Design the sequence.
C-alpha cells in the first residue's frame, strides 16, 4: 500500500499491479502506431504514459523500459535508430528524479512540470536528427507536447483507477 | 561460522546508481544513432523488430481503414458517376496511344535488332497500395503494403499513373518504405524532354522540387517537362517526373534557381506501381573489344 503523497489527499492507494503498467504502456504504443497522417498536435502517448509511471513508480518503470520502448518506436516510425531511445531514456531519468517534487503538487501544477519534460524530449529528437542532416519539421511539431500536457489530468484519473478500488469487497460501502 | 567478512543481508539492494545507468543508456543510444545514420549497419535488427511489430501495426491501421471505408460509403452517387465518366474518357484518350504501342514496341525491337543494340527492358512491376505516411516528421516517406514476399527490393522506382513518386528505400517482409522524390535527401537524375539537357532533381520540402546545378543561362523554360534520364542505372529512362514551374535567373549566382512541381501524385494516398529492378548497366561497347583482347590475354596466365 502506498500513500498518495499530495498535500490535498491522504487517500491510501492499493499497490500498483505490474501487469497494469505493462498493459497501459502497450496501449500507448498501440495508440502511437495508429497512422494519424498530417493531423497536427497528436500527443506522443508513449512519452506521456512513460512520464506518468516514472513519476508515480520510479522503482518499477525506469530507463530500461524507456530504452526498449524507444527502440520499438524507432522501427515503427522509420526514424533513426536510437532517436526515440535516447529521448525516452533522458525523459525517464528526469521524471524519476523529479518524482518526489512533482507528486507534492496538485494535478494542474504537475502538468506544468510535465510540459517542459515532454518538450525537452522532442527537442532531443530534433537535435539528433538535425545533426544527422534532416530538415527542421516546423514549430507545429511541438504542439504534440501541449496536447499531451492537457491530457495529464484525465490520464491521472484513468491510470490510478485500479488503485482506488477497496481491498475488501463490501456491498454496504458507498464507494 | 565467523561473522567477520560476512556480507550483510541485501536490505537495500539497488543496483547501479541512476546516473551510471543513465550514462550507459545514453552512450548505447548514441552508438545506435551513429551506427544507423552514418553506416546503416542496423537494417537486419530493424527488419526483425518490424516483422514482430507487423500485426500490431496492421491492427492499428484498422480504425483508419474503417473510417476511410465509411467515408467512401457515403460518397455521393453523383461523384462516383462523374469519376466513372472521367475515367472512361481517359481510357478512350489513352486507347489511341496504347493500341499503337504494341506495334511500336515490335518495330522498336526490330530496329534495335538491326542496329545490334541491347533491347530495352520492358517495365514490369508490382501494384501496391500506400498504407500511410511514415510518422517520422523529419523525412518524406510512405509505407506500402508489399515487401520481400512480393519480390520488392530496395532501390526500385515507384510510379503512379502520372509520373514518378519515389524510390523503395527499405524493405520489410510485408511492407516497404518509399522515400518520396520531395524528400530533401532524395536526388533523381533527370533530363528535360525539349532539349535533352541533363540535371539532378532534389526535393525542397513543401511538395516542391528543385533542379540544381544548372548554369544561370541554361535553356530551361517554365512548362518544360522533366523525365528520368536513366543515367543512374536505377530508374528506367523516360519516366515523367516533374514540370518546371518557375525559373529565377540571378546574375549574382552561378546557378539558376529552377523550381518544379511533381507530375506524379506525390504525397497523395493511392495505388502505386513498384517497377521491377533494372538489369545491370551493359558492359563496354562492342567497338572496344578488339583493343581489350591483348589485355585479357595478359591477364589469363596470372589467374593460373
Sequence:
Amino acid at each position: 500500500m502506498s500513500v498518495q503523497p499530495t498535500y490535498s489527499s491522504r487517500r491510501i492507494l492499493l499497490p500498483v499491479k505490474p501487469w497494469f503498467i505493462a498493459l497501459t504502456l502497450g496501449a500507448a504504443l498501440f495508440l502511437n502506431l495508429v497512422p494519424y497522417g498530417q493531423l497536427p498536435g497528436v500527443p506522443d502517448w508513449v512519452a506521456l504514459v512513460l512520464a506518468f509511471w516514472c513519476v508515480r513508480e520510479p522503482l518499477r518503470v525506469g530507463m530500461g523500459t524507456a530504452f526498449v520502448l524507444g527502440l520499438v518506436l524507432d522501427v515503427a516510425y522509420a526514424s533513426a535508430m536510437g532517436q526515440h531511445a535516447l529521448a525516452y531514456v533522458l525523459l525517464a531519468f528526469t521524471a524519476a528524479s523529479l518524482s518526489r517534487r512533482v507528486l507534492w503538487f496538485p494535478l494542474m501544477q504537475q502538468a506544468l512540470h510535465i510540459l517542459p519534460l515532454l518538450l525537452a524530449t522532442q527537442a532531443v529528437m530534433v537535435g539528433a536528427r538535425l545533426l544527422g542532416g534532416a530538415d527542421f519539421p516546423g514549430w507545429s511539431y511541438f504542439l504534440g507536447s501541449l496536447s499531451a500536457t492537457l491530457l495529464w489530468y484525465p490520464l491521472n484519473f484513468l491510470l490510478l483507477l485500479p488503485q482506488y478500488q477497496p481491498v475488501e469487497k463490501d456491498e454496504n460501502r458507498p464507494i | 561460522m565467523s561473522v567477520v567478512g560476512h556480507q550483510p543481508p541485501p536490505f537495500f539492494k539497488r543496483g547501479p546508481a541512476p546516473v551510471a545507468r543513465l550514462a550507459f543508456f545514453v552512450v548505447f543510444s548514441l552508438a545506435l544513432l551513429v551506427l544507423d545514420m552514418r553506416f546503416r549497419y542496423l537494417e537486419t535488427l530493424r527488419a526483425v523488430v518490424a516483422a514482430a511489430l507487423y500485426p500490431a501495426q496492421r491492427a492499428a491501421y484498422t480504425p483508419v481503414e474503417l473510417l476511410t471505408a465509411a467515408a467512401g460509403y457515403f460518397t455521393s452517387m453523383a461523384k462516383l458517376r462523374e469519376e466513372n465518366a472521367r475515367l472512361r474518357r481517359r481510357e478512350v484518350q489513352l486507347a489511341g496511344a496504347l493500341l499503337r504501342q504494341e506495334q511500336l514496341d515490335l518495330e522498336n525491337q526490330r530496329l534495335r535488332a538491326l542496329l545490334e543494340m541491347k533491347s530495352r527492358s520492358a517495365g514490369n512491376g508490382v501494384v501496391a497500395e500506400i498504407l500511410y505516411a511514415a510518422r517520422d516528421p523529419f523525412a518524406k516517406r510512405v509505407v506500402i503494403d508489399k515487401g520481400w514476399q512480393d519480390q520488392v527490393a530496395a532501390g526500385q522506382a515507384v510510379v503512379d499513373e502520372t509520373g514518378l513518386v519515389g524510390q523503395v528505400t527499405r524493405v520489410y517482409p510485408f511492407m516497404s518504405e518509399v522515400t518520396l522524390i520531395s524528400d530533401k535527401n532524395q536526388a533523381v537524375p533527370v533530363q528535360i524532354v525539349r532539349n535533352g539537357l541533363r540535371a539532378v532533381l532534389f526535393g525542397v520540402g513543401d511538395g516542391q522540387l528543385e533542379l540544381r546545378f544548372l548554369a544561370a543561362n541554361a535553356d530551361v523554360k517554365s512548362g518544360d517537362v522533366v523525365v528520368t534520364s536513366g543515367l543512374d542505372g536505377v530508374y528506367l529512362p523516360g519516366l515523367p517526373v516533374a514540370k518546371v514551374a518557375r525559373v529565377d535567373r540571378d546574375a549574382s549566382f552561378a546557378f539558376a534557381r529552377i523550381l518544379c512541381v511533381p507530375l506524379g501524385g506525390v504525397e497523395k494516398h493511392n495505388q502505386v506501381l513498384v517497377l521491377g529492378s533494372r538489369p545491370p548497366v551493359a558492359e563496354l561497347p562492342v567497338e572496344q573489344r578488339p583493343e581489350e583482347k591483348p589485355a585479357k590475354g595478359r591477364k589469363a596466365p596470372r589467374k593460373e
User: Anything to note?
Assistant: The mean pLDDT of chain A is 88.
